[in-house]
């Protein structure tokens, strides 16, 4: 998770909301690192989880990432959780809860039995560090009203 935080900080320096993701192989090798990229790439689907999954899938030449683990600094949204399920990722570890758009917190999808794949989920790893990263970023944005309005929609 510490590596995911460092990657999120890189994204923040680029003006992206600081969310970082690290995808690990079943053999404990790093397959991909990613941070949010929607602003810079002009792609609303370029969340850290999606970018990490795309990179890892290309690296292993397979859209299935069976047995892999994903570490992400923020609880995934429903789009990202859907990608995690479709990629057949085995374990998800996240830092901070997302009380506005979290797939588990807001939509209850983490406990749903309707999916054809079950993900092992562990939340709140380095929670305070992950929350602080987001809090600091948005506090800084509020000091720049024009940019903040653009980024927060």
Characterise the protein shown here.
- The protein has 153 residues and is α/β, with parallel strands linked by helices.
- It has six helices and five strands; from the N terminus they run αββααβαββαα.
- Strands 2-1-3-4-5 form a five-stranded mixed beta sheet.
- α4 (78-86) links the parallel β3 and β4 (91-96).
- α1 runs parallel beside α5 (127-142).
- It is globular, with a radius of gyration of 15 Å.
- The chain starts with a helix and ends with a helix.
Largest sheet: 5 strands, mixed
Strand order of the largest sheet: 2-1-3-4-5
Please state the average pLDDT score: 94
What ranges have pLDDT less than 50 throughout 5 or more consecutive residues?
none
Shape: globular
For the terminal residues, how far apart are their CA atoms? 28 Å
Q: What string gives the helices and strands in order?
A: HEEHHEHEEHH
Q: What structural class do the secondary elements suggest?
A: alpha/beta
Summarize the structure.
This protein is of the alpha/beta class and 153 residues long.
Produce the secondary structure layout.
Blueprint: H1 2-13, E1 20-24, E2 30-35, H2 38-41, H3 48-60, E3 69-74, H4 78-86, E4 91-96, E5 120-122, H5 127-142, H6 145-152
Parallel strand pairs: 3-4, 4-5
Antiparallel strand pairs: 1-2, 1-3
Provide tags for this entry.
5 strands, alpha/beta, 153 residues, single chain, globular
């Amino acid at each position: 998770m510490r590596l995911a935080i460092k990657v999120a900080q890189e994204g923040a320096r680029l003006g992206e909301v600081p969310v970082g993701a690290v995808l690990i192989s079943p053999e404990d090798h790093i397959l991909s690192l990613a941070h949010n990229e929607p602003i810079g790439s002009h792609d609303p689907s370029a969340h850290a989880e999606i970018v990490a999954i795309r990179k890892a899938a290309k690296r292993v030449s397979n859209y299935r990432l069976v047995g892999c683990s994903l570490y992400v600094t923020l609880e995934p949204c429903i789009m990202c959780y859907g990608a995690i399920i479709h990629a057949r990722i085995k374990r998800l570890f996240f830092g901070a809860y997302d009380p506005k758009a979290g797939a588990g917190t807001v939509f209850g999808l983490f406990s749903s039995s309707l999916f054809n794949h079950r993900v092992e989920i562990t939340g709140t790893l380095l929670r305070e560090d992950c929350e602080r990263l987001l809090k600091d970023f948005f506090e800084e944005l509020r000091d720049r009203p024009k940019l903040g309005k653009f980024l927060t929609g």
